[in-house]
Structures are given as structure tokens and as C-alpha cells.
Write a structure and sequence with these properties.
heterodimer, A: mainly beta, globular, disordered N terminus, B: 163 residues, 7 helices
Chain lengths: 665, 163
């Protein structure tokens, strides 16, 4: 009997002091493993990196980052430096998660001249700017497939406008803004017959044109297609507006100056140089004013979300003003740029224009001052379709001998440095403006496309972090079958050398991204929609106004939601053959008091998610006779599971009167 | 052996103190947000002494102001009827007699600061319990609106008691 406590106590007393030792040893082993792996990965000490990106529970990130969703058609919102995902903003694709593109109020945002399109490929988020600095009003993003530009309101983080671009195809060099967001540009990647017509594909050189569009942004944010410039049939790849001294200009890169229409992989890489097209938009405005434009046919949709009615409306426009460069001297110049340039990036001063020649090892940097001088002195090297080609040497400021392969994009910090991604050699290279010397290089995992520094394409970069947006993920995360997430990598760029801090997965394929200090966006973020200001024609502001109205075969249900019941929650007198519109209003006025709505058997439509004070409409065509439940999908309160109701569907011949109620009253 | 046990106990106590210390410092941070502490226990003290927790410190009551009460009635019908009836329990308690049961400050704080009230005020906590966990929603009314609602509720209790 005496032995037992000893037997039991001995291991116990030994184990307790041992445990911390074991944990410590395991920790050391783990740490050394991690250190070895991360030193391979070019990172700093793992513990130091962890501290730099650690945002404690309940604390906020320093930056909001907006990542394009690529083929998801959406924008994702991340915090930096933590890499935490906050929100998916649906833009060009239906989003069943919150009913975007399924609610009757949002369906018009996906309307085009082709009809309703539920998907697109979103590439380049661009923050609105004031005096060349991101101002936090709006975020623009392009649809690459069916050419469109969208505007997201950064008070609500919701898409409030989509505008279609006629005469364009593959809206890739888009949607970059001028210094005060006077214009958003939208250049076509694919040249097409302009206007569209049925012609042989091999008549490319004769019939195909590349159209560059300028969308005017009103002070309210509303977009209008102002004019288009009809360019030679090249592929217009990327763009950036000038700033400061170059603010009246927009620069577009192009490839396929060979004007090939098949096997571009080979045929568009024949010439030693393609071009950067420099367009003077102030001159363009003057030519439009003088009436030197042509009217070109083209049907396009402009879909606007009215924040007071919480409803989008489609406006259909016909025709667009176009300028022909040969008729408008001084409007466009072409700068020869080596090897199919991809990104074109303007430094914070506005003087240097970097052309990232993607089939090259070197970067060509042009000088705006030299370009102006070359124009004045007419240092031309021939012309293309009446557009003067400037002499390469007369405009060149310097060449960055990088030693890398496949430069794609460049961003800038606030200390006179530039950072370029190299896709083929899988690295980010830091170099100095003016000296053109390489200062540092770090590998990325793997094959970066775009990179992003908060404000890194503006006059005022916040040069603390750099995010490399990698195209290849391979072994960076736990495998998830053949299809992998995409990978972003965060670097600290505050010191002389770039330091890899963090990998984090991204949604869809992020092409470009932009970031802005949280201190700019946070104070202006809306918390609720005001019920008092809700002017949706189907709003139900009080439970007393809740009702069901029949109009022929159409049923309108005016329904309210508040924790934790619907009014009405019992509906009868619906017949097969009716179409039911549930107009839900969330009566809550408290932050994060959301409600959802879903009804069984809703063919073609998803659910609704309603923020406080919002009204949204879900169309439901009953398919069968019976009694069907509906319920709140967003866990709203302790009595959320009780937030449910029934709608009865009768056969057409049944005599069931229309009625509705909640509770026993 | 005894020594080791004592050592272990000591280590445990240190760890416990450390944990409690950390934990209490974080709760005091949370509480720092609300300026007032919950009033005395509901069961013993006079409920009319409980002014609740929120922006309203004291309300001077005079004779019923009928215009203000009318304004309160409009707000009541728009904002409160989703959960409250005058005569009968609905989602929340019947409101008839509430001005006799609760202090005017408590009523206004319950309207204006329900999130904190249902977490910390003993009477409010009890009422949530009686309502099967249905919470009082914060509708972000103004203090003027809350005052008008109070006047409307007073006018009901005044007329019902005088009858």
C-alpha cells in the first residue's frame, strides 16, 4: 500500500520538470528546422519575421491591400502585414455567398450588350488618386474578357458601377487613373475589326485596330466613356498615367507590332523592339472640343448602383467619339521599347518611364524630359499609321543591367528605389533610379507576375512593404490535389536589403494589387445603411407595412427581418405558375447585425445577405405544390434557429385566399 | 518527495497567479470602455434605484408633455413594435407599467445602450433571460428620441393609473 503513492508520485514528479524540457527541446529542434528552411528561402530569422507580421488578436493591420481575383472575377481585401483575408468584394462574377448578381437589385451590374454575363477575369485594381496620391474614395478594376471597368465604393466596399467598353477586346491595359482621377484608361489587348464585322482573320493587317479608351470620372464617381483613340493593330498590354510634369500623358506598352494573328508565341516576337505609346490626354480633350472626332458605332452598357435606392440600373448607350492619331498632330508618339514590353511604370517624380521588356534581361528607362526634347527637335525614326516614332536613343534615360530574366513589373519606394519582378529568373530586383545600379535581389517562390508596394505607382509610396504576387505555387503549402492556391509573399523593404517575412495564399489569380494605409480608409467605413434614407421602391420600414400583393401571376412579398423573426412568416395563397419576389428589409440599425434569407428549391438564384438597413429582392418561381420553409442564413442571435417561416404553394385550381401573418395576432 | 511536491505546488501557484494576473488585466481593459459600474443586485435593492448603464445620468420629470409623448408614440410604432407591445408580452416584455417598475434613466439607457445593459445590468440580464435570450436590438436612436419614448410610456402609465 505504501508503494503505490510512491510509484505513482515518482513518474509524476519526474514528468513535470521533464515536460518543459521536452517542449523546449522540441521547440529548439523545430526552430532550427524552420531557421534552416527559411534561410534557404532568403528570409530573416523566423522569429523576427514572425514578430514583424504578427498582429495580435483584436489589433488592426497597418494597410488594406486589394488583390485582383483574376479568374474569380472578384477583389479580395487583405490586411498587411498579417496577410489576413477580410472580405471578397464581388465585382464581375456572381457571388452566391451574399447574393451579388442573384438579387434583383444587383443583377443589372452584370449586364452587357451581350446580355447577362455571370463571370469575368479581373486583373488590375487601381485606387482613385488626388494629386497623384491614393485618396481612398474608390477602387477601379478591369474585366479582361468582356471589356468592362468597375468602380468600388470604399465607404461600403461594394461595386457601385460597371461600364462596358465597345470596340475593345481583352481590356488588359486598364484601369489606370490620371493624377486627379480625371480619366480611367482602358486599352485593348487584342486588336479586332473596328467596328466589329465579319472579315477573314488573315485580313488582320487591313481590318484590325487597337482601341484605347478614356473613361471620364465625374466628381460623384460616375463614369462616362469620353473618347477612344484608334491605334495600329498591336496588342496594348499595360498602362500608367504620368504624374507631376508628365501628368497630361498616359503611357501604354504594346507587343505584337508584327501584327500577327496566329502563333503569337513565335510570330509576335520577331522584332527587336515594340513600342510604348505616349498619349497626351489634354490634347485629346482639345481635339474633341474642336470637333475633330468621328462618331463610331458601338453599343455599351453603363450600370450604376444608386446608393439611396440600393438598386442598380442599366443605361444603354450607342456610339462613341473616336480620334484618329494621323488627323491629330501631337496626340500620340511611339517610343521604341525592346522585346515585347509588359508593364510600363512611372516613377514618383513623373520623369522616368520604365518599360519592362519581358523577353529581355535589361530594363529600358525613358526620360519624360528627353522625350519632350525629342518631340520639339523632331528626332523621329519614321512613323506608323501617321504616328511619329521617337528615336530610341533620344528618349532613353538609362538601362538597368539586371542580370535577371523576364522583367514584368516595377513599383517604387519613397527613397528613390525601384523594384522589378523577373518572371523567368523568379526574383525581385531592387535598383536605384538615376544610377540604374542593382542594389539587391531576392528570390521569390515562384515566378512573380506583378508586385505591389502600398502607393507604389503613385507620387507618394509608403515604402515599408512589398508584396510579390507569384504565378506558380508548387510546394509552398500543403498540397490540395492538382489545383493549388496562388501565393503572395511579403517583403520588408524598409532597410537596404529586402527581407522575406511571410507567404500567404490568395484568392483566384491575383494579377495586380494596390494597398493604402488603414488610417485613410478606416474612419470613412460605413457601419450600417440608414433605414431612414432607404429609398428602395420595395422597402418595408416597419412591420406594420409588411404585406403580400398579388398582381396577376406576380406576387410581391414585402418582408422585414429583425432579431429573430420575419414579418410575415406564414404566407398562403400562392399558386403554381406564380412568380414570387421576396423584398426583404433588414430593420436592424446596429453594426454587424446582418440577416440572410433563403427559400427551398430556388432554381437559378442563390440567397440574400442583408446588412442593417438594406433592402434586397430574391426571385422565386415555385416548382411544386407544398409548404416550403424559408429561413435566416446568417447566425444573427441566440434565437437564430427560430428565425424561420413557411410559404404554401397550391395547385392552380385550389381556392386558397392570399393571406399572411406572424404570431397569433 | 515532500519538497518536490511543495515545489510543484509553488510552480503551479506562480503559473496560476501569472494567468490570473494577465487575465484580470485584460478584463480591466475591457471594462475601461464603460464608465459606470453595474448597480447593486436586482433582487435586494429597489429596482427604481437602478439607473442602468449608459449616457443618461439623470432625467428631470415634470407633468406629462403631450406633444413629446405623441412624438414618442410615432417612434414607438416605427421602431419598437417589431419586438414590443404595450399590453402584452411579445418578443420582449409588455411595456405597460414599465415607468413604474424602472427608473426613467434606466429606460433611456436600455434604449440607447442595450448592448452593454444586457451584458452588465442585473435587471436587463434577467429580462433577456425571461425573453428566452431574445436581445434588445440597438437601433441607434438619439437621446431626444429616447426621451420622447419615455414620455410616451409615461403617458400610458399615467392614464392607466388615473383610470
Amino acid at each position: 500500500m505504501h508503494m503505490k503513492p510512491i510509484i505513482f508520485s515518482r513518474p509524476t514528479t519526474q514528468v513535470i520538470p521533464l515536460l518543459p524540457g521536452i517542449i523546449a527541446m522540441a521547440g529548439l529542434l523545430l526552430a532550427s528546422c524552420q531557421a534552416r528552411r527559411s534561410s534557404e528561402a532568403g528570409a530573416i530569422n523566423a522569429q523576427e519575421a514572425a514578430q514583424r507580421v504578427y498582429v495580435a488578436p483584436g489589433k488592426y493591420d497597418e494597410f488594406y491591400a486589394f488583390m485582383s481575383g483574376g479568374y474569380s472575377g472578384q477583389v479580395s481585401v487583405y490586411g498587411l502585414p498579417s496577410g489576413r483575408l477580410f472580405k471578397i468584394i464581388p465585382v464581375f462574377s456572381q457571388n452566391p455567398e451574399n447574393g451579388y448578381g442573384y438579387s434583383e437589385e444587383t443583377k443589372p451590374l452584370l449586364m452587357t450588350s451581350y446580355g447577362f454575363i455571370p463571370w469575368d477575369d479581373a486583373h488590375h485594381p487601381e485606387l482613385s488618386q488626388t494629386n497623384g496620391v491614393p485618396d481612398g474614395r474608390w477602387l477601379f478594376i478591369n474585366a479582361n474578357n468582356t471589356p468592362r471597368v468597375a468602380r468600388i465604393d470604399l465607404k461600403t466596399f461594394e461595386t457601385v458601377e460597371t461600364i462596358e467598353i465597345p470596340n475593345s477586346a481583352g481590356n488588359h491595359s486598364s484601369p489606370f487613373v490620371t493624377e486627379n482621377t480625371e480619366y480611367v484608361v482602358a486599352g485593348t489587348r487584342f486588336s479586332v475589326p473596328t467596328p466589329q464585322q465579319d472579315v477573314p482573320i488573315d485580313s488582320y493587317k487591313k481590318n484590325f485596330k487597337g482601341v484605347l479608351s478614356f473613361i471620364k470620372v465625374e466628381p460623384s464617381g460616375d463614369m462616362d466613356l469620353a473618347f477612344q483613340v484608334v491605334m495600329p493593330g498591336f496588342d496594348y498590354d499595360l498602362a500608367h498615367a504620368g504624374k507631376g510634369k508628365s501628368k497630361d500623358w498616359v503611357f501604354f506598352t504594346c507587343y505584337n507590332s508584327e501584327e500577327a494573328h496566329t502563333l503569337l508565341e513565335v510570330n509576335a516576337s520577331q522584332k527587336d523592339k515594340d513600342f510604348v505609346a505616349a498619349i497626351n490626354w489634354k490634347k485629346a480633350e482639345a481635339y474633341i472640343q474642336q470637333g475633330k472626332y468621328h462618331q463610331m458605332p458601338g453599343t455599351y452598357y453603363d450600370n450604376r448602383f444608386d446608393t439611396s435606392t440600393q438598386t442598380a440600373r442599366s443605361f444603354v448607350h450607342q456610339g462613341v467619339k473616336v480620334l484618329i492619331p494621323a488627323e491629330c498632330p501631337g496626340l500620340v508618339y511611339l517610343i521604341p521599347a525592346p522585346k515585347s514590353p509588359h508593364g510600363v511604370d512611372v516613377d514618383p517624380s513623373g520623369n522616368y518611364i520604365v518599360a519592362n521588356g519581358k523577353l529581355n534581361a535589361d530594363l529600358s528607362v525613358f526620360s519624360f524630359d528627353k522625350m519632350q526634347q525629342a518631340i520639339q527637335q523632331k528626332q523621329f525614326d519614321g512613323e506608323v499609321n501617321g504616328i511619329p516614332v521617337l528615336k530610341f536613343d533620344a528618349t532613353l534615360a538609362g538601362i538597368v543591367k539586371s542580370g535577371g530574366l523576364g522583367p514584368l513589373h516595377t513599383e517604387f519606394d519613397d527613397k528613390g528605389n525601384a523594384y522589378t519582378t523577373f518572371f523567368i529568373s523568379s526574383e525581385v530586383v531592387k535598383w536605384k533610379l538615376g544610377t540604374w545600379q542593382v542594389e539587391d535581389r531576392q528570390p521569390t517562390f515562384y515566378s512573380p507576375g506583378h508586385l505591389m508596394i502600398p502607393g507604389g505607382d503613385s507620387r507618394k509610396p509608403w515604402g515599408k512593404y512589398l508584396v510579390a504576387l507569384n504565378k506558380i505555387t508548387k510546394d509552398r503549402y500543403l498540397p490540395t490535389g492538382p489545383e493549388l492556391c496562388q501565393s503572395a509573399q511579403l517583403f520588408d523593404i524598409s532597410g537596404d536589403k529586402m527581407k522575406l517575412l511571410l507567404d500567404f495564399p490568395t484568392v483566384g489569380e491575383p494579377h495586380y494589387a494596390q494597398a493604402i494605409p488603414a488610417s485613410i480608409l478606416m474612419p470613412q467605413s460605413d457601419k450600417i445603411y440608414s433605414l431612414a434614407n432607404n429609398r428602395n421602391p420595395y422597402v418595408t420600414k416597419t412591420e406594420k407595412e409588411a404585406r403580400v400583393v398579388r398582381n396577376g401571376r406576380r406576387i410581391d412579398v414585402y418582408m422585414t427581418e429583425i432579431r429573430s423573426h420575419f414579418v410575415p412568416d406564414n404566407i398562403e395563397g400562392i399558386h403554381l405558375g406564380d412568380t414570387v419576389y421576396f423584398h426583404l428589409t433588414n430593420l436592424e440599425q446596429d453594426w454587424d447585425a446582418a440577416h440572410g434569407f433563403a427559400v427551398e428549391g430556388n432554381r437559378d438564384n442563390a440567397e440574400l445577405l442583408l446588412m442593417p438597413g438594406q433592402t434586397k429582392t430574391l426571385k422565386w418561381v415555385p416548382q411544386r405544390v407544398g409548404v416550403f420553409p424559408f429561413y435566416c442564413t446568417d447566425f444573427c442571435s441566440a434565437l437564430h434557429q427560430e428565425m424561420q417561416g413557411y410559404i404554401r404553394v397550391s395547385a392552380p385550381a385550389e381556392q386558397v385566399a392570399l393571406s399572411w401573418s406572424t404570431g397569433k395576432e | 518527495m515532500v519538497m518536490k511536491k511543495r515545489l510543484n505546488t509553488l510552480l503551479f501557484l506562480i503559473a496560476a497567479f501569472w494567468f490570473v494576473g494577465c487575465h484580470s488585466s485584460s478584463t480591466s481593459e475591457q471594462q475601461a470602455a464603460s464608465t459606470e459600474t453595474p448597480s447593486a443586485s436586482a433582487s435586494k435593492a429597489n429596482p427604481l434605484d437602478d439607473k442602468g448603464i449608459g449616457p443618461v445620468q439623470s432625467v428631470q420629470l415634470g407633468p406629462i408633455q403631450s406633444e413629446l409623448a405623441k412624438k414618442g408614440e410615432v417612434i414607438f410604432n416605427e421602431k419598437c413594435t417589431a419586438c414590443h407591445r404595450i399590453e402584452s408580452r411579445y418578443i420582449g416584455p409588455a411595456l405597460k407599467g414599465v415607468t413604474k417598475r424602472q427608473a426613467p434613466e434606466w429606460i433611456m439607457n436600455m434604449i440607447l445602450n442595450p448592448d452593454v445593459m444586457i451584458q452588465q445590468d442585473p435587471i436587463a440580464k434577467q429580462l433577456v433571460n425571461e425573453s428566452n435570450g431574445a436581445v434588445m436590438a440597438n437601433l441607434h436612436l438619439s437621446e431626444d428620441d429616447a426621451r420622447a419614448l419615455l414620455e410616451y410610456l409615461r403617458s400610458i402609465d399615467d392614464s392607466s393609473s388615473s383610470r
